Amino acid sequence: MGKSLPVFNFDQLGQKLGLLKSQVTSFSTASAPNDGRTVDDFKPYLVALNLTKRCNLKCEHCYLDATTKAGGGSDELSTEECFRLIDQIAEVNKGCLLVITGGEPLVRPDILDIARHAVSLGFMVVFGTNGMLINDKLAKELVEIGVMGMGISIDSLDPQTHNAFRGVPGAWEAAVAGIEACKRNGLQFQVHFSAQPMNYKELPDVIDWAHELGARVLNVFFMVCTGRGEELTDISPEQYEEVLSFLIDSQDKYQDMLVRARCAPHFKRLAYEKDPNSPITKAQGYMGGGCLAGTNYARVTPNGDLTPCPYMPLSAGNIRDTSFVDLWEKSEVFDSFRYPHLKGKCGDCEYSEICGGCRARPYVDHGDHMDEDEWCLYTPKGGEKIQVAFNTQEETSIEWDSAAETRLNRIPYFLRAMVKKGVERHASENNIPIITIELMEELRQKRFGNEKPVFKF
Ligand code: SF4
Ligand code: SF4
């Protein structure tokens, strides 16, 4: 992952950067009430809970000192505070995906209690982890709790490269052992790969490897670096285009594994250029691969600051002082993402509705999160804004019996709409008036055979 950034409280930052605050304040209050959308149009689909700074690795890019890595710092949210936070998120959307991460979340002693609490409220819970602490006992317990899956970081297929980057001998071997423990115990796993200059050429092999291993999702993360020049460790814009294009083609090749770019929203522009009707183009939310920061995505830091995404160090406030509900619904920071006044080529771009560019990159580069995303090579042609009709519900007379509906509702929300649409289309084409659990099973068999689908179906 990219270098973590210090989080700024918006008010404190405003004092330091009066100009920026006045810019953000003015466009959020001026534009929000006039475009017809309300806070109900913005539900969190994905909340990343960075619950600890503790870590069992020594990644060379990490800014944390050893004491903080060992103890997490004195200001981490307590167990009770985590419970309260999760209760508050449930007030806004308990159907959202909670990603419990860190640091290394599994070194936090109460982490399973926190996961258990979230699952008991109906959340889908996944972990973002280096995988090293997952053994059979833990994997079994995570399954019993109802954790949906583990996202495990692998930076290279060469153990030495991964271990050198992570700063600990044996890190790669332990991560792969963690994956094997997940497999033995029926715990779904995803592979998380951070594209960097040192490893991006390995991507074809990594995708193949992850697929062979049985990963249901391969997420390729693109780093957000703190600047240019000596700190620039990102891949170049040209390399971005190359990797994104490759990922789009890979999704066609590996149909039983979700392949997505994370934090490179022009993935959506490239997908549209290749095929305006492709499943990637039409996908939204977590499945979409665009940027959800502030609109459907938020991150909580270990000490309770709420930011639009892990790379965006602008805090809407702290959940110790203000409830998640109020911060999510009333924050000027979040409004600035929901009613954006994009500048530069992103503002002029016909793809701005489906892409919009990364907001964190211009922010960390020069402090203006509405500015253009310079990591995109596209030159806007000035046409109409491209819209994808992924929000429209198709009218249908097909009914679902109650057992089939229950099964449908067990599917994670971000897959549910796609599954529902597919089953209804099949029913309609075959004159089947009522969808039953038998029909769902028949289609599941056709689609996946004896393979397990990405998530419970
Ligand atoms: S603002 Fe950038 S880093 Fe944050 S979620 Fe969007 S694409 Fe990712
Ligand atoms: S110019 Fe901006 S909005 Fe257009 S495709 Fe590139 S990043 Fe996306």
Can you describe this structure?
With about 450 residues, this protein is α/β, with parallel strands linked by helices. It contains 19 helices and 14 strands. It has helices spanning about 10-15, 20-30, 65-70, 80-95, 110-120, 135-145, 160-165, 170-185, 205-215, 235-255, 265-275, 280, 325-330, 330-340, 345-350, 360-365, 400-410, 415-430, 435-450, and strands at about 10, 45-50, 95-100, 125-130, 150-155, 190-195, 215-220, 260, 295-300, 305, 315, 315-320, 400, 435. A ten-stranded mixed sheet has the order 8-7-6-5-4-3-2-9-10-12. The protein has a two-stranded parallel sheet with strand order 1-11. β3 (about 95-100), α5 (about 110-120) and β4 form a beta-alpha-beta unit. The protein is globular and about 65 Å long. Bound molecules: iron/sulfur cluster (SF4) (2 copies). One iron/sulfur cluster (SF4) binds next to α11 and α15. InterPro entries: 4Fe4S-binding_SPASM_dom, AdoMet-like_SPASM_containing, Aldolase_TIM, Elp3/MiaA/NifB-like_rSAM, LI-POR_suB-like_C, P-CP_red_C, Radical_SAM_PqqE_MftC-like, rSAM.
